[in-house]
Amino acid sequence: IVLGIRDILDTPDRTRRVLRENGSFDTIQKFYDVVWIYGLPEIFDTVKEYAFPDRVRQKTYYCGYLKRPVAAATAGNGSLRVLVTTGGGGDGSAMIETYLASLTMLTEELAVSSTVVFGPQMASEKRSEILDRYRAFPGVKFIDFEPDLTKLYAEADVVVSMAGYNTVCELLSHKKNAVLVPRSEPVREQLMRARLLAQNGFFQTIEPSELNPEIMKDKIIAAVKTTSLNRHLLALDGLTRINERVHALLEK
Questions:
Q1: pTM for the structure as a whole
Q2: Residue 92, Cα to own-chain centre: how many angstroms?
């Protein structure tokens, strides 16, 4: 029986307390044969930061991040192509509105074409409010929901998104320059992931308390200039390692 967990759950102090108080480590020790972490200690040392006891540490393995299907990048028309995506969209309206408000400043420096994906959980009244204000803005395409963003990633030069695990794996797989706007509540998982990836030079990020149009404009321009030379250092072979470990377990 395998327990798989993503790279980051929450801040170390919160997570240590929860794991200790709810008896998680005793449960893992009693019922699970192995623990797989879908991340890398070079980015976040889950075992160390969450204080895994020795008996759990000995059965824990890092698998790496999970590469997602990619489409070949498509040639642009000379403008900066920006994809704005919120995932589910339930709490993504502030990010979308900030991006759209930044366009007046951004288009003074660059030709920009934008694709904005609302997400299926965005409140209909909020979607309508955004459309009423920005529908006529030139070069902006609005999409209610797209279940497979692969084609849209391939068509984008820069992505503005939140910092959920799946989104980050998609961005890394497509080698996209991006501006991450993480949520910080009810847990700080996304905030921590965005900060760590920014510190390692993978993406730009905007702190939730600093989300405003001018900073958004500056971060997008910085993202355009970001090189991806170090992205090959981040292992995206998690599925390969999982496959190998499954075979190893079956052989026992």
A1: 0.91
A2: 13
Closest Cα to residue 49, out of 3, 21, 10?
10
pLDDT tens digits, 57-99: 999 999 999 999 898 888 888 899 999 999 776 788 999 999 9
**By three-state DSSP, how is residue 70 classified?**
coil
Each residue's pLDDT tens digit, 204-242: 999 999 999 999 999 999 999 876 655 556 778 899 999
Cβ neighbourhood burial of 189 (10 Å; 0-12, 13-18, 19+)? buried
Mean pLDDT of the chain: 92
Token pair of 91 as six digits: 């709490």
- Cβ(204)–Cβ(179) under 8 Å? yes
pLDDT score at 39: 95
C-alpha distances out from residue 60 to 3, 4, 41, 44, 136, Å: 9, 10, 12, 14, 53
Query: What's the Cα-to-Cα distance from 191 to each of 100, 135, 195, rounded to whole Å?
Result: 22, 30, 6
Burial environment of residue 46 by CB neighbours within 10 A (0 to 12, 13 to 18, 19 or more): buried
Q: Do the Cβ atoms of 81 and 113 come closer than 8 Å?
A: yes
Neighbours of 125 (CB within 10 A): 8
pLDDT at 247: 92
